[in-house]
Amino acid sequence: MSDTPLDIQLKTLPNSPGVYQYFDANGTIIYVGKAKNLKKRVSSYFTKNHDYGKTRVLVKKIADIKHIVVETETDALLLENNLIKKHQPRYNVMLKDDKSYPWICIKKERFPRVFSTRRVFKGGGEYFGPYTSGKTVHTLLDLIKGLYPLRTCNYDLAQSKIDAGKYKVCLEYHLGNCKGACEGNESEEEYNENIKAIRQILKGNFKDSLQQFKKQMKQFAEDMLFEEAQKIKEKIEVLENYQARSTIVNPKISNVDVFSIMSDETYGYVNFLQLSYGSIIRSHTLEIKKKLEETDKELLELAITEIRQRFHSNSKEIYVPFEVDLGETVKVTIPKLGDKKHILDLSLRNAKYYRMERFKQDKIVDPDRHANRIMAQMKGDLRLSEEPRHIECFDNSNIQGTNPVAACVVFKNGKPSKKDYRHFNIKTVEGPDDFASMEEVVHRRYKRLLEEAQPLPQLIIIDGGKGQLSSALKSLDLLGLRGKIAIIGIAKRLEELFYPDDPIPLYLDKKSETLKIIQQLRNEAHRFGIEHHRNKRSKNALNTELETIPGIGEKTVVELLRHFKSAKRVANAKLDELEVVVGNSRAEKVYNYYHIEK
Question: 517 - beta bridge partners?
């Protein structure tokens, strides 16, 4: 039975924190949820037997799934709250009321108060949060009140009213929790210095305050007041885990549209985040097929116009990764750092995930479609007469001129075929000569394939510039294969592609899938060659150091190296030390070799 569209979506969900939205057949949001791992959480709805009838009905009505990827589980919790408040999904019972997560407010007034609130009023003061844990809010306020005496009354402390003696100090003053600004016992300048310090704590810069807490905890422990010390310890732990900022909700960013783009050779993926009063209320990714090799700028301008019309957005400001031309009615901002840059990065992350998921879905629906598309792309990009279904890449490896070897890796339909990889020990070349080595291995490889009537590749890639390419061509000439197999060389430094008898190299687009496959081939050939080179060099090192000693075999060499760790330590070992490991007779042979015969 073939996979349904929902099955395919479930298989390609990311293992990241985020928020998922379920839609019914009419395209209406019926449920919003948050997850630490989107793939596991969403899949659980379709694999478990649900006890609640409401959940079973919900699952039956799901026709489509959308998700938004975020950085942390806390961000997912906050975004879930935003979306439920905005869309009021039928199957979300919690969080539908007008309450929200708590904030801490520094009131905009003379001698500002600091308090928790669930409502944010524009111009009412500075808001920090929101916080997903009430415990964090209480701990922060307790910390602030313990460090800085602040007023809690709601008097209008205008200077004229204080001078007129309109207010009297309250119990908080006598308890030492307030310095009595209402009677002029504290200057505004002194009070505002405390507010500055509190602002730093709320931004997450509470290093000094934590040190004070730790001193208090230590003092309580020394005084044997362990319960008090434990309370302080709990506050320290909460503060150390406190997340100072959230990308999802930020009262400084209001009524803004955020756009980012991720593109490849054939498609552009534009993500749109809509912010209202500092909260993300919508995410949508638009896929645009390229027709005339449009630039990212052209695609983004097209997408912004279409998306804003579709969602009836009238925001006067947009955030984008680069300059776009949208007329004079919209303010275009290109964030470089801070909260605005974070929200743009979040948009780009969602565009990237969307592109990855589409590729995965294509592979599930039509496994051959991806390979066919890449093969057709490579044929066009590299000016080949046929699709390169079978590619072979050669690389030499002769570090410091010793033990020269070469590697041949094979890709079939754009994927490594490791069973067809081959190593070559250079036989006819003396010393480090890359050109002659390349000539030898190419000749040996295709001479054997011809003798055994094996299929030949459609494309040969030589890791090197014009010199190595010319050497490989000599071998193809000798075998009568020139013109029958396409061959190119790739130079490491600028990723230049060289063709036979063409002095001008080809440069592919850095985003090109063709270039990525060529790079993957080159890197795989390099890795495979280096691995063989190291193995050969290690074996030769053992041979020359120990196995050349008359009367000493491989088993003895292994025993000596296992005990002494290196050939140098074996050479410097005393006779009695060697006897303990390999016995008298063999110990004498090794000792005499290093101390008498030399």
Answer: none
Indicate whether 250 belongs to any domain: no
One domain for residues 267 and 359: yes
pLDDT of residue 206: 63
400 and 526 part of one domain? yes
Q: What does the pLDDT look like over 358-380, one tens digit per residue?
A: 878 777 777 777 788 888 888 88
* 453 Cβ contact partners less than 8 Å away, ≥ 6 residues apart: none
pLDDT of residue 259: 93
Q: Are residues 523 and 393 in the same domain?
A: yes
The H or E element containing residue 345 is helix 338-365
pLDDT of residue 1: 45
**Residues across the chain:** 598
Assign 3-class secondary structure to 91-153.
CCCCCCCCCCCCEEEEECCCCCCEEEECCCCCCCEEEECCCCCHHHHHHHHHHHHHHCCCCCC
Assess whether pLDDT exceeds 60 at residue 586: yes
- Integer angstrom CA distances of residue 25 from 60, 62, 307, 507: 11, 7, 22, 48
Query: Are the C-beta atoms of residues 409 and 421 closer than 8 Å to each other?
Result: yes
Shared domain for 490 and 560, answered yes or no, is no
CA distance 499 to 486: 9
Which residue type occupies 185? Answer: N
Give the pLDDT of residue 390. Answer: 92
Q: What is the CATH number of the domain that holds 576?
A: 1.10.150.20
DSSP labels for 391-433? EEEEEEE-GGG-S-EEEEEEEETTEE-GGG-EEEE--S--SS-
Sheet holding 125-128, edge to edge: 114-117, 103-107, 125-128
Dihedral sign, Cα of residue 250, residue 252, residue 254, residue 257? negative
Determine the average pLDDT of the residues in 419-427.
82
Are residues 406 and 522 part of one domain? yes
Contact 518, 489 (CB under 8 A): no
Burial of 260 (0-12, 13-18, 19+ CB in 10 A): buried
pTM of the model: 0.51
Beta bridge partners of 463: 490
* Six token digits for residue 595: 């101390």
Paired tokens of 261:
């783009």
For residues 182 and 148, membership in a common domain is answered with yes
- Percent of the chain at pLDDT above 90? 2
| CA separation for the pair 70, 342 (Å, rounded) | 11
CA angle 84, 90, 96 (to 5 degrees): 40
Residue 327 belongs to a domain with what CATH number?
3.30.420
- Above 60 in pLDDT, residue 247? no
What SS3 string covers 209-251?
A: HHHHHHHHHHHHHHCCCHHHHHHHHHHHHHHHCCCCCCCCECC
Q: Is there a domain that residue 94 lies in?
A: no
Sort strands 317-319 and 256-263 into parallel, antiparallel or unpaired. Answer: parallel
Strand ranges for 413-518 from DSSP E = 415-416, 422-425, 459-463, 486-491, 496-499, 502-506
Provide the number of structural domains found in the chain. 5
One domain for residues 553 and 427: no
Q: Which domain holds residue 317?
A: 256-363
Q: At 290, is the secondary structure helix, strand, or coil?
A: coil
**Maximum Cα interatomic distance, the chain, rounded to a whole number of Å:** 110
Give the tokens for residue 80.
């879930």
* 565 and 524 in a common domain: no
The answer to whether residue 95 is domain-embedded is no
